[in-house]
């Protein structure tokens, strides 16, 4: 399977924003945050694949719900033919 570039870039942007926020917020942990960036870069493709699988799974449920008609009408009844009695 190939990674979708759009999802991969969005996951990378979220990871970079989280790392940047943590870097600016926690001054004591800056060394650990910088040291964990290569690990996060290596996990970028597997994490984006999990996100894509989640998106595909949730999309299938919505499409099934949208395909159902809201007001189901019963099928039309076949006309009843009366048998003629022979005397």
UniProtKB/TrEMBL annotation:
Chain segments annotated as transmembrane: 7-26, 32-53
Claim: Transmembrane is one of the keywords in the record: yes
Lineage: superkingdom: Bacteria
Alphabetical list of Pfam families matching this protein: DUF2933
Region of interest (Disordered), ranges: 63-87
Keywords: Membrane, Transmembrane, Transmembrane helix
Identification of the protein by name: DUF2933 domain-containing protein
Organism the protein comes from: Ramlibacter aurantiacus
